[in-house]
Amino acid sequence: MDVSLRKVTRDNYEQVLELKLTDEQQRMLSPNSVSLVEYHYHQDTHVARAVYANETVVGFIMWAVELPDEAIIFRFMIDEKWQNKGTGRKALLLAVDEIKSHDGIEEIAICYSESNSVAKKLYFSVGFVEKEKSNDDMIAVLAV
Fold first, then answer.
1. In CATH, what number is assigned to the domain containing residue 103?
2. What is the Cα gyration radius of the chain?
3. Pairing between strand 129-134 and 3-7?
4. What's the structural domain count of the chain?
């Protein structure tokens, strides 16, 4: 299976909107519709990507570069039908590589619900380490 990240465009945004999380995960993440509206109004700092498995949209990831030396991934989801197949890990590694290509980035942060043990395990497997708690979320960082 070939995993890739592609820009969210008028050709694939509806597929991004149709992606589903498990019932439990829905409580931990904003809907993709909210994320796409946010992206629309912050295209100067935000990057939105559809996650593809071959030619099928299977996930969504969004990050921002608002500081010269830091990026933060604040939306990341894989459709419930595509979870536990290695798709999320491959997509996250692709996003990290793309973020690293920005000049001056020294740290990538990611935010997740403390109760989301699946996300924590994935992020730690890529090299993120917990840094601080912000409200009900944990912030983990990856040094570039």
1. 3.40.630.30
2. 14
3. unpaired
4. 1
- Domain containing residue 38: 3-143
The token duo for 130 is 């917990």
For tokens 């829905």, the residue is: 26
Under 8 Å CB-to-CB from 73, ≥6 apart: which residues? 61, 62, 63, 95, 99, 108, 109, 110, 111
Backbone angles phi, psi at 101, to 5 degrees: -75, -15
- Provide φ and ψ at 85, rounded to 5°: -125, 5
d(CA 106, CA 70): 6
User: Residues 12-65: pLDDT tens digits?
Assistant: 999 999 999 988 888 888 899 999 999 999 999 999 999 999 999 999 999 999
- pLDDT of 136 reads 76
How many other β-carbons are positioned within 10 Å of the β-carbon of residue 126? 16
d(CA 107, CA 81): 31
> Distance between CA atoms of 94 and 3, rounded to whole angstroms?
9
3-class DSSP state of 124: helix
